[in-house]
Amino acid sequence: METYSFEDISRFADGEMTGEELTRFEERLQQDENLRNEVAFYRNVQSSLRMKLVKDDQDKALEDTLHRLSKEHSSRTAKIVPMRRYAAWASAVAAVFVIFMVWMPWKKDLYQQYNTTEMLTTAERGDATTNNMQTAADAFNNKDFEKAKTLLAQVVQAEPDNSMARFYYGVSLLETGDIAQSRKTLADVYQGASVFKYEAAFYIALSYLKQHDKSHCKEWLIKIPTDAANYDKAQELLGKL
Length: 241
Description:
The chain is mainly alpha-helical and about 240 residues long. The chain folds into 2 domains: about 55-105, no CATH class; about 110-240, Tetratricopeptide repeat domain (Serine Threonine Protein Phosphatase 5, Tetratricopeptide repeat), CATH 1.25.40.10. The chain is about 70% helix and about 0% strand. The two termini are about 45 Å apart. The model is unreliable at about 50-55, about 75-80 and about 100-105 (pLDDT under 50).
C-alpha cells in the first residue's frame, strides 16, 4: 500500500496535488482513517496559524483606563505640592504599579497560554475505534481529560500505529498529572514521521514547563525545525522563557 509523507499531506490540503496523484490520494483517503485524521490535523494547524490574536478584554480595559487618567492629568491645572508629600505619593504609586505588573491576575501562566490544542476527528461514525475517537474528542475538548484518557488508551491498544490517538493520549496524560507516562507516549510519537511529530515535541516541552524546568523545555523547543507548522509558536515561547 502506498504511503504518504507530511509533504504529500500538505500538498493535498493546500490544493497543490493534481491529476492521477490526486485521484489516488482521494481514494486512499476514503479507506484510511489515519490518513483522514492527519489531513484534518494539518488543516486545523494551518487554520490556527491564520487566526488573528484578539486582545484580551482586561488588557484593553487597563489600556483605556490609563489613557483616560493620562488625559485627566494633562487637563488639570498645575499645583504646587510640598516635596515630602509628592515623594510619598510617587513612592506609593510606584510600589502599587510594580506589584500590579508582577502579579497581573488576569494573565495566564505560560503553560496555560500555550496549552491550547483541541482534538479533531472525522465526523463519520463507524466501528468501535472510530466511535471511541469521536467520544474522546468530545471529552478532550470539554476538558474531561480523565474520560478522554481512558477512551484513547483503548484506541492506542487496538491501533498502536494510530499516531493521532497516541498524541492526544499523551496530552491527556499530561493534563491528568501523569507526566512521566505522558513524556514516554509523546516521545514515541516524536520518534515517528507523522504530522504529530513536532506537536509531540512541543508538548514534551510544555511538560517540563509545567514543572518549571525551563532548561529541558528549551531543549525540546529547539528540536522543532523551521519548516514545522508550529515553529513560530515554539520560537515565541522560547523568547518568553
